[in-house]
Amino acid sequence: MIAMNTKKMLLLAAALLTAGTVCLAQTEQSQVIENGGTGPYKSVAIGDKSLPTHMIYRPQDLKAYVEKNGRIPVLLYANGACANNSLEISRLLSEVASYGYFILAIGPYDTLSDERFYAQWRGVMRGGYPETKREAIMGNGERLTPYTEAERAALAAEREAARKAAAEAARKNRNKKNTAVPAPFRTYARQLLEALDWITDQNGNDQSEYYHLIDLEKVAAMGQSCGGAQVLAVAHDPRIKTCLIFNSGMGEMEMSGASKKSLANLHTPMLYLNGGTADIAFNNANGDYGRIMDNIPVVKISTLDGHHGTYYEKNAGKYAVAARMWLNWQLKGEVSDAALFMNEDYEKSFYPDWTFERKNW
Fold first, then answer.
1. How far apart are CA 321 and CA 359, in angstroms?
2. Residue 59 lies inside a defined structural domain of this protein
3. How far apart are CA 330 and CA 344, in angstroms?
4. Does the residue 9 lie in any domain?
5. For 78, 165, 187, 196, which has the most beta carbons within 10 A of its beta carbon?
6. Sign (positive/negative) of CA torsion 86, 265, 292, 337?
C-alpha cells in the first residue's frame, strides 16, 4: 500500500511538473501604431515575455472582440529579407489586426518612431522607385520621387568613403587580437509554427489571458519576399488554412527551406500579390502560379507598386486592404469581401491598375 501511494505521488508530481512547463503569456511592452488602425477593434503591438522571438499585433480589447464575434482567427507572419524584425510592415499588421485578427510576427518586440519609419522608407522607395509607379505618397503626406543622378552619385561616394575607412581601420587593427563577433541572428521558417504552437498552448491553459479566445481552426500564414518562401516551407502544415504570398515566389530558386517542390505540398487556397513588372519577384510569382496543382485554388494579383508594395502609405494602403479582405473571406466566411478576388466588375471599378488571374475555383 505504501509503495502504491508513493508511486501515485511520484506520478502526480511529474504531471504537475509537466503542466508547469508552459510559460503563461505576460505582456511586457506595448505600443499603438497609427492610432490602432481603421478597423472596429483598435489594435496594439505587444512584446510578450513568454514569446521573446515574436511580436504580437492584436485588438486592444481582445475579450470584447470575442464576446461579439467568437474566438479570434490567427495570422502568422514572416518578414521581407527573412529579417528578424516586423517593423517594416508594422502599419499593415496593425491595420489588419484592427479588423479582428491575432497576428504573430517573427522578430522580437521593437519600436520605430514615425520619423524613423518614414526616413527608412524614403530611402528604400527613392532608391528603388518602380518605373510603373505613377505617384508614391507616404503616410505622412510626403510625395516621393526617384533619386536624381546627382543624388545617386553622392550616395555612391558616401558608400565608397565608408568602405575605404573600414578597410583602413581593418589594416591598422590586423595585428591586434580580435574578439569573435557572433553571427547575426537569422530567422527560419519553423518560427512560424513555433508561434502557432505557443498560442495553441496558451489557448488551452486556463491560467493564460488567451484561454479559449483563439480560433485554432482559422489560421493563415503570410510572408513578404523572403518571408513568402518561409511560408511556402511550412504551408504543408494541416493547421494552416490559407496562405498569402506577397512580392514573392520560388520560380527556380531555393530559399529558406523552400523551392518549387514545395508547391506540391500546398493544400489551401493561395493568394499571390506582387508588384508587377517592376517587382524582382514578378517572374517567380508567375512561375509558381503556373506550377500550382489543379486542385489548389489560387488568385494572383499584379500591381504597379514594385517590390515594396504600399507598406509605407497611410495604414499600408491597398496591400493592407487586400490582405484583410482575403482573410475576411477565407477565415471568416465574409463572402462580400470575395468580390475583390472573384468579381471582374468590382475589380475594374476599384482596382483598374491591378491585373487579376485566378484558377481552380
1. 22
2. yes
3. 19
4. no
5. 78
6. negative
Nine cell digits for residue 248: 514573392
In a domain, 51, yes or no: yes
Grid cell locating 293: 496543382
Indicate the number of domains in the chain: 1
For the chain, counts of helices (H) and of strands (E): 11, 12
* Residue burial 177-199, b: 16+ Cβ < 10 Å; e: rest: eeeeeeeeeebbbebbbbbbebb
- Grid cell digits, residue 301: 494579383
Contact at 8 Å (CB) between 112 and 223? no
Tell me how far apart the alpha carbons of residues 80 and 224 are, in angstroms, rounded to a whole number: 5
> Model confidence over 280-336: pLDDT tens digits?
999 999 999 999 999 999 999 999 999 999 999 999 999 999 999 999 999 999 999
Predicted TM-score of the model (pTM): 0.90
Number of neighbouring beta carbons within 10 Å of residue 293: 12
Domain presence at residue 93: yes
Q: Show the cell assigned to 233.
A: 516551407
**Look-up of cell digits 529579407:** 81
CA 165 vs. chain centroid, Å, equals 37
pLDDT tens-digit map of 121-146:
999 999 999 999 999 999 999 999 99
Beta-bridged to residue 246, according to DSSP, are 224, 273
> 170 vs 127, 165, 174, 180, 182, CA distance in Å?
29, 9, 6, 14, 18
Annotate 316-361 with DSSP letters as a single string.
GHHHHHHHHHHHHHHHH--GGGGHHHH-HHHHHHH-TT-EEEEE--
* Look-up of cell digits 513568454: 50
What gap in Å lies between CA 295 and CA 24, rounded to an integer? Answer: 40
DSSP string, 258-310: B-GGGGGG--S-EEEEE-GGGSTTHHHHHHHHHHS-TTS-EEEEE-SSGGGTT
Q: 178 in helix, strand or coil?
A: coil
Q: The domain containing residue 229 runs over which residues?
A: 27-112+186-359
Give me the CATH number covering residue 82: 3.40.50.1820
Extract the C-alpha cell encoding 74.
Answer: 490567427
Phi, psi torsion values for 196, nearest 5 degrees: -65, -40
Cell of 6: 508513493
